[in-house]
Amino acid sequence: MLKSFALALVLTVLCLGPARAQSTHAFTNVRIVPISGPVIEQGTLVVRDGKIVAVGAAVSVPAGAETHDMAGKTIMPGLVDSHSHIASPAGGDASAPIQPDVRVLDSVNVRSSGIKRAQAGGITTANIMPGSGHLLSGQTLYLKLRQGGTVDDFLITLPDGRIAGGLKMANGTNSIRTPGGPFPGTRAKSASLVREQFVKAQEYRAKLRAAGDDATKKPTRDLAMEALVEVLDGKRTVHFHTHRHDDIITVLRLADEFGFKPVLQHVSEGWKVADQIAKSGLSASIIIIDSPGGKIETVDVAFKTGGVLEKAGVNVGFHTDDYITDSRLFLRSAGMAVRAGMSRDKALYAMTMAGARMLGLDNRIGTLEAGKDADFIVLSGDPLSVYTHVEQTWVEGAKVFDRSNAEDRKVATGGYGALRDEALDLDGEGEGR
Questions:
Q1: 55 backbone dihedrals φ, ψ, rounded to 5°
Q2: What percent of the chain stands above pLDDT 70?
Q3: 405 vs 111, 146, 156, CA distance in Å?
Q4: What pLDDT shows up at residue 293?
Q5: Could you tell me if 396 and 146 are in contact, meaning their C-beta atoms sit under 8 angstroms apart?
Q6: Structure confidence at residue 16 (pLDDT)
Q7: How many of the other CB atoms lie within 10 Å of CB of 274?
Q8: What is the pLDDT of residue 179?
Q9: Which helix (H) or strand (E) holds 263?
Q10: Which end of the chain lies in a sparser environment, N or C, as judged by fewer CB atoms within 10 Å?
Q11: Strands (E), 21-122
């Protein structure tokens, strides 16, 4: 009888996935950077059942709460990586340059060491994307970096029941291949192919609307067109890889023609067309690379881009493009941008709330406010200091990284040999986490 009950309990737990935090924690005597307001020098953060209950300087610790004295530490919201390739995502193949039906959901490996590296870097939410070798390489996936064994444990579900994610597009040299095949050979042909697909999507949407509830009049289901219609209807955000100033302007032109609002990814030459980006109202997600190199179209990448875009009035965020920037080193992006002219407040905003806005999740993450998800990080010192370490990472009130743990510290500091893709140890008895 007991064995049957135990088996049933195990099966129930497996069906539900990793347990969410169901206890109350109070973090006291801590410097809090809420992003939504001024720094609180001697504050308290209270979280319960995965949500923030209270944050401030005069917050009482609830009876029965597990109290953590954080004297000398700093707490800020979990970092949002608006462009990452952790967990080995794969998108479209070589059969066509535009493949909106392909889903990263069906290819990511959440048991990859990349997830653990991101947790060690303080990243709590990430936009997992396929590569940029296509004009459109597939549907991206917004993941909460919880503990879990399958991708389902990391998914974010939207109020309408859809799985949160965007669409990856690219222009420039990456998507230009040998002329004569299915891929474009020039920038002009690239834009032409994209326009052609969006026109088809407009026609597909028109047929759906004309058919109404009459199933006999609806067009044959087209998975590729469905994804593009979601873009046209504002239900799915395009994350557009673009580097050169002329490529950036092409994206603005396409967005204006078809009425969608992409996030501009990389914008290496964004500082050259900052006013145009600002006028478009689009957000820009940039990468701070401390050793520039690679493709010729990034020759004018500049540390000053964040500051220039900020002054122009653009919503600026940061991303890792991991492994281009190791997820464990993501926080230094803010410090390097400030050194090149970005304001301190906007640089920290760029690491958190700006990315949340880009993913359409700003009602849940990005700041430390009552009612939001309890996603936060504990730092050893000031967020912009090169000497500061991420000591703890919490997602929805559950600790997913602790530098004081020997295995976690190995993830945070080790090289490739210490970061093998290994099976997660969900019961805590083996080497994996």
A1: -150, 130
A2: 90
A3: 19, 17, 28
A4: 64
A5: yes
A6: 40
A7: 21
A8: 64
A9: strand 263-266
A10: N
A11: 24-32, 40-48, 51-56, 66-69, 74-77, 79-84
Q: If we measure between CA atoms, which residue out of 32, 149, 30 comes closest to residue 87?
A: 149
Q: Which of 148, 126, 68 is nearest to 392 (CA)?
A: 68
The C-alpha atoms of residue 359 and residue 39 are separated, in whole angstroms, by 25
Q: Identity (one letter) of the amino acid at 118? A: A
pLDDT at 291: 64
**Strand ranges (E), 66-145:** 66-69, 74-77, 79-84, 123-128, 136-139, 141-144
Q: What pLDDT is attached to residue 415?
A: 87
- Report the pLDDT value the prediction gives residue 181, as an integer from 0 to 100: 77
Residue 144 to residue 396: CA distance in whole angstroms:
9
**Which residues of the chain have a pLDDT value below 70?**
1-22, 178-180, 290-293, 421-433
**Pairwise CA distance, residues 390 & 380, whole Å:** 7
> What residues have CB less than 8 Å from 346, skipping those under 6 apart?
306, 310, 316
- CB 81, CB 143: distance < 8 Å: no
Helix spans in 272-374 (H): 274-280, 305-312, 332-339, 344-351, 353-358
Q: Is 129 helix (H, G, I), strand (E, B) or coil?
A: coil
DSSP 183: S
Cα gap 344→176, rounded to integer Å: 38
Other CB atoms within a 10 A radius of the CB of residue 162 amount to: 12
Distance CA 433, CA 426 (A): 6
Structure tokens at 116: 């653990």
Q: What is the per-residue pLDDT for 356?
A: 98
C-alpha atoms less than 13 angstroms from C-alpha of 144 in its C-beta half-sphere: 30
| Distance between CA atoms of residues 228 and 236, nearest Å | 8
Residues 270 and 277 sit within 8 Å (Cβ to Cβ)? yes
User: What is residue 3's predicted lDDT score, i.e. its pLDDT?
Assistant: 46
Helix (H/G/I), strand (E/B), else coil: 62? coil
**What pLDDT, on a 0 to 100 scale, did the predictor assign at position 295?**
83
Q: What is the pTM of this model?
A: 0.91
DSSP letter at 296 equals: G
In degrees and rounded to multiples of 5, residue 89 shows phi and psi of: -70, 140
End-to-end Cα, the chain, rounded Å: 32
Q: What is the chain's alpha carbon radius of gyration, rounded to the nearest angstrom?
A: 22
